[in-house]
Design a protein that fits this description.
With 263 residues, the chain is mainly alpha-helical. It has one domain (5-257). 52% of the residues lie in helices and 0% in strands. It has 14 helices and no strands. It is globular.
């Protein structure tokens, strides 16, 4: 995907961007690219927002909030009583082009099913929350997947900033082009990288970053259908439905299902 630097800065605001930490800048760029891949920043709006409406929206919505909390022109479709992961992909995560492309690339290159699943899930939590999405994503999926999958999702957030020649992963040139060559991650990102680099599951997370870089292709549509069997074999869907099983992340699934619930 080609990113117009001026267009990106215009959507954020030069002043807001200059005040962001390096990690926040990288997060904002990724959100921008995912939104563009999915068809624009305001998927539900019938007409583009005016300047005044954009200013009001920026005041109302913290940048770390997920898309599900953004203003919409029509209500969300209700979730089924015993909702599955496929239901959440269809009714909450969609269009999810980025993660579908990532999982498709992992499948095409012969990665194991757990890696394909990790690529399919790694950024979906951004529907709920964008800040520290690797950590939030790991917590969302941990009760239902192999520990290597959730571990990989957690640390891909840090590893994307650090090259690994052994698997052909380079520091994203786009970061240099958008933010300049002096861009550096925050200290906790360095600490997470050092920990992950020495861990036995390092490659689980590294392969997410490898397949992540191929997942911003405009005009490439990927459906959830090729991954249904992989989900069935590798995702432990509770019989009560996600959000109703009293797991450690059930409250997160309930929030995704009903984000406007006041209490």
């Amino acid at each position: 995907m080609e990113v117009d630097r001026r267009a990106f800065i215009a959507t954020v605001g030069a002043g807001a961007l200059s005040a962001m930490s390096p990690e926040d800048k990288a997060e904002e760029l990724e959100h921008y690219m995912i939104d563009m891949l999915d068809g624009g920043h305001d998927h539900d709006a019938e007409e583009p927002l005016s300047e005044e409406e954009q200013e009001v929206q920026e005041v109302r919505n913290a940048r770390g909030m997920g898309r599900i909390f953004q203003p919409r022109s029509k209500p969300l479709e209700p979730m089924p009583a015993n909702a599955t992961l496929e239901d959440f992909f269809r009714l909450r995560f969609a269009p999810a082009n980025h993660v579908l492309q990532s999982a498709s690339h992992a499948m095409q290159t012969g990665q194991p099913e757990r890696t394909i699943l990790a690529c399919l899930l790694h950024d979906t939590v951004q529907t709920l929350v964008r800040a520290d999405h690797g950590y939030w994503g790991a917590q969302l999926f941990e009760p239902y997947v192999d520990e290597r999958v959730s571990w990989g999702i957690k640390y891909h957030q840090a590893l994307r900033f650090f090259p690994d020649e052994s698997v052909g992963y380079e520091y994203p040139e786009m970061y240099n082009r958008i933010f300049g060559g002096d861009y550096v991650p925050e200290p906790y990102i360095y600490e997470a990288y050092e920990y992950a680099r020495a861990h036995k599951y390092y490659m689980e997370s590294r392969m997410i970053t490898v397949n992540d870089t191929y997942a911003f292709q405009e005009g490439l549509a990927v459906d959830i259908d090729p991954f249904i069997d992989i989900i069935g074999r590798n995702f432990k869907t509770p019989k009560e439905g996600l959000g109703n099983d009293n797991s450690g992340s059930a409250h997160m699934w309930r929030t995704l299902a009903n984000p406007e619930r006041p209490l």
